Amino acid sequence: MPETAPLPLDPRAIRLAASAAGRDDAIRQCGEALLAVGAVESSYIDTMLERERSISTYVGEGVAIPHGTLAAKDAVRHDAISVVRFPDGVDWDGERVTVCIGIAAKGDGHVRLLAELAQILMDPDQARTLREATEVAEVVRLLQPNEEDEEQ
């Protein structure tokens, strides 16, 4: 297995022109994108909101990474991420979030997903590309680079 595997991203789970009434609505939209691609059962969305009430998933640079609680593992059908972009921003407990990356993972899969996302978000250029993306293909290229892209 390669050191960094592509993130499990279905293009149908990418929404780049969303708007949300607030943090909980944004989280719900991330969860609904995961639900739409068959990654989770609907009960998973409630655990994403529960997680946020216990600890913020805001990670900086205008990005939040909402995910369910450990108790929700049974509601995950397969590892997946969703990317929901809010061009006008969402108030996230006093921070402005423009990109929400929802995570669903069985077992310890979330650890790998978070580590791979962190690598992207720690690069200011890649983080900016993600925040400003207007095309699904841009997000897929950033989060699922293929080997040809990496060789260039």
In short:
With 152 residues, the protein is an alpha/beta fold.
Keywords:
five-stranded mixed β-sheet, 6 helices, alpha/beta, disordered C terminus, globular, 152 residues, 5 strands
Largest sheet: 5 strands, mixed
Please report the number of helical segments. 6
Low-confidence stretches: 147-152
The helicity comes to: 40-55%
What is the alpha-carbon Rg in Å?
A: 14 Å
* Helix-strand sequence: EHHEEEEHHHH
Structural class: alpha/beta
In what range is the share of β-strand residues? 15-25%
Number of strands: 5
Mean model confidence by pLDDT: 87
Termini Cα gap? 21 Å
- Strands ordered across the widest β-sheet: 1-4-5-3-2
Q: Give the overall shape.
A: globular
How would you sum up this structure, described in words?
The chain is α/β, with parallel strands linked by helices. The chain is 40% helix and 23% strand. It contains six helices and five strands; from the N terminus they run E-H-H-E-E-E-E-H-H-H-H. A five-stranded mixed β-sheet has the order 1-4-5-3-2. A hairpin with a 2-residue loop joins strand 4 and strand 5 (95-104). The protein is globular and about 35 Å long. The two termini are 21 Å apart.
